[in-house]
Amino acid sequence: MANKNYVYLFKEGKKEMKSILGGKGANLAEMTNIGLPVPTGLIITTECCNEYLAADGEFPRGMEEQLKEKLQVVEQEMGKNFGDENNPLLVSVRSGAPVSMPGMMDTILNLGLNDKNMKGLIDVVGDEWFVKDSYRRFIQMFGNVVLDIDGQDFEDVLDRIKTENKLESDQQLTPKMFDEIIEEFKSIILSQAGIEFPQDPEEQLKMAVQAVFDSWNNDRAKVYRKINNIQDDLGTAVNVQAMVFGNMGDDCGSGVAFTRNPSTGENKLYGEYLINAQGEDVVAGIRTPLSIENLKDQMPKIYDEFFEICEMLEKHYRDMQDIEFTIEKNKLYILQTRSGKRTASAAVKIAVDMVKEDLISKAEAVQRIEPQQLENIMHSRIDPEADLEPVARGLQASPGAAKGMIIFDADEAEQLVETENAEVILVRTETTPDDIHGMVAAQGILTSRGGMTSHAAVVARGMGKPAVVGCDALKIDYTNQKFYVGDKEFSKGDMISIDGGTGYLYGGETPMIDPELSDDFDTLLGWADEFARVVVRANADNPTDAKRALEFGAVGIGLVRTEHMFMEGGRLAAMQEMILSDTTEQREAALAKIMPYQRDDFYNILKEMPGKPVTIRLLDPPLHEFLPDIEELTEEVTELRCTGKDPSRLEEREILLRSVRSLAELNPMLGHRGCRLGIHYPEIYAMQLRAIFEATAKLVKEGYEVFPEIEMPLVIHVNEQKKLRKQAFEVAGEVKKEMGTDFPFKVGVMLEVPRACYAADQIATESDFFSFGTNDLTQMGLGVSRDDAQGKFLHVYVEEGILEHDPFVVIDREVVGELMRIAIEKARSLDPEFEFGICGEHGGEPNSIEFCHIVGLDYVSVSPYRVPVSRLCCAQAAIKHS
Amino acid sequence: MANKNYVYLFKEGKKEMKSILGGKGANLAEMTNIGLPVPTGLIITTECCNEYLAADGEFPRGMEEQLKEKLQVVEQEMGKNFGDENNPLLVSVRSGAPVSMPGMMDTILNLGLNDKNMKGLIDVVGDEWFVKDSYRRFIQMFGNVVLDIDGQDFEDVLDRIKTENKLESDQQLTPKMFDEIIEEFKSIILSQAGIEFPQDPEEQLKMAVQAVFDSWNNDRAKVYRKINNIQDDLGTAVNVQAMVFGNMGDDCGSGVAFTRNPSTGENKLYGEYLINAQGEDVVAGIRTPLSIENLKDQMPKIYDEFFEICEMLEKHYRDMQDIEFTIEKNKLYILQTRSGKRTASAAVKIAVDMVKEDLISKAEAVQRIEPQQLENIMHSRIDPEADLEPVARGLQASPGAAKGMIIFDADEAEQLVETENAEVILVRTETTPDDIHGMVAAQGILTSRGGMTSHAAVVARGMGKPAVVGCDALKIDYTNQKFYVGDKEFSKGDMISIDGGTGYLYGGETPMIDPELSDDFDTLLGWADEFARVVVRANADNPTDAKRALEFGAVGIGLVRTEHMFMEGGRLAAMQEMILSDTTEQREAALAKIMPYQRDDFYNILKEMPGKPVTIRLLDPPLHEFLPDIEELTEEVTELRCTGKDPSRLEEREILLRSVRSLAELNPMLGHRGCRLGIHYPEIYAMQLRAIFEATAKLVKEGYEVFPEIEMPLVIHVNEQKKLRKQAFEVAGEVKKEMGTDFPFKVGVMLEVPRACYAADQIATESDFFSFGTNDLTQMGLGVSRDDAQGKFLHVYVEEGILEHDPFVVIDREVVGELMRIAIEKARSLDPEFEFGICGEHGGEPNSIEFCHIVGLDYVSVSPYRVPVSRLCCAQAAIKHS
Fold first, then answer.
1. How far apart are CA B299 and CA B705, in angstroms?
2. How far apart are alpha carbons B468 and B443 in whole angstroms?
3. Which among B41, B33, B7 is positioned nearest to B21, based on CA atoms?
4. What does pTM read for this prediction?
5. A719 to chain B: which residues are within 8 Å by CB?
6. DSSP one-letter string for B710-741
7. How far apart are CA B241 and CA A115, in angstroms?
8. What is the ipTM of this complex?
9. Is the CB of B672 less than 8 angstroms away from the CB of A812?
10. What's the sign of the alpha-carbon dihedral B109, B110, B112, B113?
11. Candidate from A569-578, B207-216, B363-372 with smallest mean pLDDT
12. I need a surface site. Which of A267, A530, B149, B692 has the fewest CB within 10 A?
C-alpha cells in the first residue's frame, strides 16, 4: 500500500478539503491560494489523527518523513531554518477540526526556540526582553498544554519574582529576571513531568502534534461532541505555521484595518498601525498607533500592496473585512481576515452600498443585517462602551433606555414634567389605570412587581416607552419616598437610568445613544419586502401608534386591544359602574356612556389606516382588572373599621370589597374573560360592535376606504363563534340601516387556547380569519403563567438549559408550533386560502418569524417599533427557505 | 305499475321493518307476532308519507282503498265496527318515524266518536260521564293537533264553566256540563278552522293521517332533524290502533305489573289492578288497587293467561318487564310492555339472578346496570321520593347526603361531636388546613366559596364525606353566627341537610336512604372484571382510604397525593418554617422535622397494599398554599397597626405578610408548582424520596412485597425528568446501602400539561410509566380554570348547549382526548407496552372511561368510593368495543 499524504502545505490545500485539513487549515490554504501573503505553513491531516489514535499513539508509517520534507519547504519559503542557531524558524501549532470544537488543545506559539537559538535570535531582533519573554512563554505553554502541568505552577513563579522585586506588572521584569524564570520553569517541567524540557525543535514539534491529537479524546471534547451530536471519528488536523515578527526593526510593523469604516459604513480603508511593534502593541494602547493613511507616506509600496489585498479580500469574501497584518523586514504578511464587526447603521450602509457596487445581491444584503442590530437602531439605548455597574435587574418589559428623577407618584410626575420640564422615572410596586397620566409624562417606568404582561409592561410597550418591571430586588417604601436595593438607598429626586432592552437599573445618569435612522435603512427594508411572503402588521391601540406603524411600513393593524380604551379617566368610572350593576338595564346604561368614546377611538384609528385592514379585538380581560386591588381595599376597609372615622365611606367601601371579592378569580388567565364575557353579557360586545360599525359607516360616508376586522378572543368552540358572529351581523345590519350606507367587515377569532386549534376546522366555518395569540397558547401549552414564571423559575430553566429558550420569547415549536400547524392544516383543509396571522411578541422575534414563514402564516403583527425588524426577518426567512 | 303496499296490519309486520313501519309500528307488530293479545291495528307506511308529501298532500293512488280494507280486518278482530252507532270501534292515531323524533304530531285518542255513537256507547259502557269526557277530549285533541287551533282556547271554556259553577277540578263536572262544553268546542272549531267538526269517522281518520304526515315538515321537526343529522326523506309512519276499555263492567279491569319486584329484585310477579276501571284510575289512587295476587281468585283464567304472558315477555325481551294490561269484557289486552325501572339493588339482583337462570349472559348482566345506579348504592342520599324544596345550590363537591346542626367553627364542631355526640354540618366560607379536625368530626361540609378542587372539596372527597362547596348564594356572617340565603336566615344550631351528589342545600332534616350493598353486587363486579381490559386503581392519601379501596376491589393505588400529609398539625408549622427559610440549610433543617412523619405515612399506606403498585406523587401545589390567606393577613396587620395593641406581633405578622406577598401568584395553577419546585429546591424532593425509600426498605425487611412508583408532577420537558430521575436513583442507592437491602421502584410522570403530551416520546426515555392528569389537561387545553369557571360561566355554557358536557366531568375528546392519544402514540412508538393510567375524576365517569378503553389506557385511578362504578364502566366499555 502506497503511503497516504498525511501532510499538506497551505498552498497544496483548498477550502473544499475541510474534512481532512480541518476548518482552520482549509481556510489558511484558501487564503494562500488566492494570493495572500500568509506566513507559510503546513497541515497534518485528520486522517493522520485517526490512525494515530487507532494505533494507540503511534504516528502512521511515513508521516514523520512527510512532515520533515514539507517543513523544509516552509524553511525555504521563509528563508529560515527550524532549529537554526542564529535566525531560527519559529512556528505556531494549533488544532483544527472539521467543525468548530471548543475543548480541544490550545495554541502553542514560538515553538522552535531553545537555549541556544534564543541567544542567536536576540542578536537578530535586537530586543533581549522580547525574545526572553517569548521563550519563557513558550516553555510555559508547552509545559501546560503538552505536558499537562497546572498553569498556576508557572504563574506562582512569576508572582513570587515580582513580589521579591516589588514589581507591579510583567512589563517591569528585566531580562535577568527572565533568565531566572526560565530556569525555574525548566525545573518545574523536570519535577512534574519527569523529563527535561526538550531542546530539540523537532522533538518539540512531535510532542506538540501528539498533544493535539490526544486532546481529541479529552473529556471536555468528548462531552462537547456528545451534546452536539458530532461524530467521534472526525478527528482533528494540526496547523503548523511560521511565526513572523513586526518588532525586528524599523522596517517592521503591525496593524489592524477595516476595509470600510466600521462605525459609519463609509467605503474607505480604516485602520491603524505601529512601526517596530507586534500586534498586541497596537491594541494595548501603550504607544499611540498611526492612522493607516500614514502608511502611504511611510511605506508606500507596502501600503499599495496592502490596499490591493484589502480590495481583493472584500471582493473574495464579499463583505467588509477586519484584517490583521504584520510587516517583517519590509515584507507584508496577512495574519488574519474576517468579516468585520460594525455598528448597526454601518451594517445597513455597507449592505446597501455593496448592492449598488454590484458586489452582493439584494437578497444577500437583506441577509447581512442581524435583526438584533435593527432593533438597536429603533430605540435609544445605554452606550455599550460605557463601563457601568448595574444596581439591579428586572424584566425587559419595553425596550429603550431612559433616565430621570425617581418619582413615586403619578400626579407628582405629571406636575413636575409640566411645570419644570423635568425628566422623571415613575417608580411603583405596580401601575394601575390611575397611573396612566404619570406614565405618559415619565421618561420610563420601573416597577418592583408584575411581569411581561403586567399593566406597566403592556401600557409601556404600547407607548413605546422604556420600562423595567418586576424588579424584585427593589424594596419600595412609599411612606418615606425611598427605595432600597440591598443596602443601597435611593430617594425621591435621585437620578436613575433604566434600560428596558436589558432590564438593568443604574444609579445616576448614563450615557445614551440615540436612534439612528437613514435612507439606506428604508432602501434595505424595501428590498426586504420584495422577498418576504409573510407581511407585517402592527399592534396599535391609538391613532398615534397607528400613524407610527404606517411610517415603519406596516401593511395594516393586526391587533387593536380595546380594553386599554376603557381605562382612561371617565370611562373607567362608567366601566366600574357597568361591572357593579345588577341588571342588564343598568349595565346597558353604563355602557351607553362609554359608547361615544369607543366610537371616536375606532373612528380615529380606522381613519389612520385607509385602504388597510384593522383587526379590532373585543374586550378580553376579566372584569376585576377594572376594579381596585383587593388587598388595598381590604386594608382601607380594615382601617376605616378600626378608626371609626368615616362610617358612610366604610359602608360604601365594604360593598365594593364584597363585589371585588365575588369577582376575584384564582386563575384569572383561565377565567371569566374573552368571549366568555361577551356571551355572558351580550350587551358589552353589542356596545363595542355598534361603536366599530358606526365609526366605519361614518368614515365610508366621508369617502374613506376602511376595513375593520372584528376579532373574538378566547374562543374554544364553534358554538361560541356562531353566537358572536350572528350578533356582529345583526348589529352591522342595524347600523347599515340607520346610517343608510353599506360597509365591508370581517369577523374572525383569536386562536389562543389549545382547544381552538384542534377545533379550527369547525370554528373556521363561522370565521373569516384567524390570528394566533401565541402568548396565551404558550401559557396554556406549557402550563406556565408568564407573569408568575419569569421572575420565579423560568430564568432558572433557561440558565440551566432545561429549556433552550424562554418560550415567551421564542415560540416553543414542540407544543405551540404544533398547535399552530394543526390549526392551519385543519382550517386550510376547508379553504386553502384561509387567512392566518399572529399577534404578540413572538411575531417580532427572528426564530419565531422563521417558524411563521415555514408554517404558512399570512402576516405577523407586532408593536410599531418592531415593524422594521419583523419586515427584515420575514424576508430572511423567505430567502432561507426559498 | 302495481300498487305498493301502503298499509300493514300489525300481524303483517315485524321488528325488522322499522324503516317502512317506523319504530313504534314495528314494535307493535313484533308484540302481536309473538302472540301477545295486543289491541289490533294497522300501520300506514313511511313510503306513503313521502309520496304524500311529494304530491303536495295527495294520498298515493290505492292507499285509501288499502286503508279501508285493512280497517275491516281490525273491525272483524275487535268485533266492533268503525262508526257503528251502538258499539263503535274507537282508535288511537299516533305518528311513528324510523328514528325517535320529538317535534312530531301528538297522539289522538278515541277517534271514531261522534254525536250519534257517543249515545250508543253510553248505553254499552254505562258511564255517561266517562264517555262524554272522552268525546270532549277527542274534539279538543282533534281541534288542537289536526286543525292547529290554540289549545288554550279549549282550556278557557273549561275554566269558565268551572268558575261559573264554582268547581275546583274537572272531576266535579257533570255530564250536563259536558254537553255544553262539547257544543262550545264544536263552535270553536267552526269559527277558527272554518269547518264543522267532522262527524264521519272515516273523514276524522283521513284528516288525522294527513296531520301526522304534514307534521313531518313542521319547524320543530325540521330543526330537530338538522341538529341531529337525520335525513329529511325518512318520513313517518302512522299507527292506527283499536282502543279497549277496562271500565265497561265488572268483567273489565285495568292493571300494571312487574315481572319481578322492582324494589328488591325478588323473582315474583308484582303488581296491582282495579276491576271496572281504566289504567289512569290505577295510578290516580282514588280507589285503592288490589295486589295482582287477588286476580288469581277473582279471574283465575285471566290471571293464568297474564302470568304466562309475563313469563313469555321476560324470556322474549330477556329483562324484567313493566306491563300495562286491560281486561275488556273478560278479554285480556296487553297495552304496553317495556323494561321496568328498578332500584339499584333490584337491578343488581335481577341481573345476577337472570344469569343464574340462564336467561342472560354475564356480559349482558354487566351491561344491564347503569353506572349512575351503582354510584347511588355507594352513598347515602336524600330520598328521591321526598317532596323537598332546596334552599340553594352549590357545587357537587363530594357525593352523599348528610344532615346536622349548623356549626361555623372547627373546634366547636369537634367538641360538640365528642361531648354530645351531635351531628353537625361545618359551614365555612372556605376551609383551610386548620379546619381538618372539624371536617373529620362533621357529617358534611358546606362552603360558600371555592371550587371542585378547593381544599374543602378535595379533602372531603378523600374522606368520602359529603360536601357542597362554592354555594354562592350563602352570605356567612361569622360575627353573629348566622348565614343568609336571600331573605332566609339560618343560625348556629339550626338543622340543615346537604346532598353532595346534587349540590343542594335543604333546611331542616330530610329523609335519607342508606347505602345498600349485597353479595350480588360482589358477584356482578366479579363478572365485570372478567371482561374489563382497563383495570381500576384508587386514589388514596392515607391507610384508611387504601384499605377501603382494596375492599372495593382496587388493584393498586394510582395516586397518593403527598401534599395533604403536610397539612396536619405539627407538620404544617415545619412546612411553613421551610417555606420562609432563606437558605438551603434552613430548609433542610425544617424538612428534617417532616421526614419521620412522611416516612410513617408511606410505611402505613404501602403496608396496606402488599403485592400491589402504589403511585406516589411528589409535592405538587405551590408553596403559598401552605401559608395563611393574604387577605386575612392584610386585615390582621392593618388592625394591629391601627390599634397599636401588640407591636411585636405586628412586626412578626408584617414579615409574614411580605413573604406571603412575594410568594403570591397571579395564576398559581400555571405557576411555581409541581416538579418546578422540586427542581428549584431539590432538598424538598430529596426528603420525600428518602421517606418513601426508607419506608419501602423497612417493609421489605419485614417481609412485605411492596411496589412504590414515584410520580413527578407537571413535567413539561425531558430535561426536567432526567434531573429528577437521577435524583431518585441517587437517593434510592443511598438508602439501599444504608439499610442493607434491595427493593424495586419505578419513576414516572404525571402528564398534565399539553407540552408533556407532545414530548411524551422524549420524556418516556426517562420514565417507567405515565399517568394522565386530565383535570389540569382540561384546564390548560380549554383555558378554563375549574375553580373559577364552574360557578361563573361553565354552567351557562353547558345549559345553553355551547358545550355538550362539563369538560371536568366528561373528557373533552376534541382536545384532552387528542392530547392523550398523541402521548400514547408517541410513547408506545418506542415501547408498545409503555404503561399509561389516568387519575382524577374523569377516571370514574362512564363516557370518559369508555374513551380510556378506546385509547388504550392500562388503568384508571379513582376515589375509593368510585372504584365499583369504574370497574363496571371498564367492563361495559370492553364489551361494547369487543
1. 68
2. 12
3. B7
4. 0.77
5. 801-803
6. EEETT--SHHHHHHHHHHHHHHHHHHHHHHT-
7. 127
8. 0.76
9. no
10. negative
11. A569-578
12. A530
Q: Terminal CA-to-CA distance of chain A, rounded, Å?
A: 47
Mean pLDDT of chain B: 90
Residue A1 confidence (pLDDT) above 60: no
Report the residue count for chain B: 882
Q: What is the pLDDT of residues B371-421, one digit of tens each?
A: 877 776 777 778 877 888 899 998 877 778 999 999 999 999 988 988 888
- To 10 degrees, the CA torsion angle through A827, A831, A832, A833? -100
In 10 A of CB B191, how many CB atoms?
Answer: 10
Grouping H, G, I as helix, E, B as strand and the rest as coil, residue B403 is strand
- Cα–Cα distance measured from residue A531 to residue A527, given in angstroms and rounded to the nearest whole number: 7
DSSP single-letter state for residue A472? T
Q: How far is CA B272 from the centre of its chain?
A: 30
The secondary structure of residue A599, as a DSSP letter, is H
Question: Which three-class secondary structure state does DSSP give residue B456?
Answer: helix
Query: Confidence band (pLDDT; 50, 70, 90) for A516?
Result: low
Shortest CA gap A504–chain B (Å): 21
Residue B858, amino acid = D
| Torsion angles phi and psi, residue B2, rounded to 5 | -65, 150
Handedness of CA A781, A784, A790, A796 (dihedral sign): negative
Pairing, β A41-44 against β A237-242: antiparallel
Q: How far apart are CA B449 and CA B427, in angstroms?
A: 11
Over residues A536-545, mean pLDDT = 93
B629 DSSP 8-state letter:
-
Which grid coordinates are listed for B301? 283464567
Residues A634, B639: C-beta atoms closer than 8 Å: no
Could you give the angle at the alpha carbon of A561 between the alpha carbons of A558 and A566, nearest 5°?
A: 160
Facing residue for A814 by CB, picked from B638, B758, B801: B758
DSSP assignment string, A363-402: HHHHHHS-HHHHHHHHS-EE-TTS----SEE-EEEE-SEE
Which residues, at least 6 apart from B643, have a Cβ–Cβ distance to it below 8 Å? A642
A7 neighbors A43 (Cβ within 8 angstroms): yes
At A554, list the grid cell. Answer: 406596516
- Among candidate residues A379, A455, A564, A853, the one labeled active-site is A455
Residue A310 known to be catalytic:
no
Say if strands B504-507 and B495-499 run parallel, antiparallel, or are unpaired.
antiparallel
CB contact at 8 A, A464 and A865: yes
How far does A239 lie from chain B, in Å, by closest CA? 38
Taking an 8 Å cut-off on Cβ atoms, the answer to whether A668 and B668 are in contact is no
Q: Residues B609, B556: contact at Cβ < 8 Å?
A: yes
Of A89, A90, A91, A87, nearest to A123 (Cα)? A87
* A426, three cell numbers: 415613575
Closest CA to B747 of B763, B765, B728: B728
State the CB neighbour count (10 A cutoff) for residue A96. 24
Nearest one of A647, A652, A550, A665 to A608, comparing CA atoms: A550
- Residues of chain A neighbouring B676 (CB-CB closer than 8 A): 793
DSSP reduced 3-state for A791: helix
C-alpha cell at A797: 430553566
- Beta A613-617 vs B331-339: how paired, if at all? unpaired
pLDDT tens readout for residues A589-630: 999 999 999 999 999 999 999 999 999 999 999 998 899 888
Residues of A in contact with B787 (CB under 8 A): 666-667
Euclidean distance between the first and the last CA atom of chain B, given in angstroms as a whole number = 47
Distance CA A546, CA A538 (A): 8
Distance to chain A for B474, nearest Cα, Å? 12
Subunit contact A782:B634, Cβ cutoff 8 A: no
Which residues of chain A does B802 touch, with a Cβ-Cβ cutoff of 8 Å? 679, 717, 719-720, 723
Mean of pLDDT values over B293-297 = 93
Phi, psi torsion values for A17, nearest 5 degrees: -95, 25
Give the catalytic positions of B in this structure.
455, 839
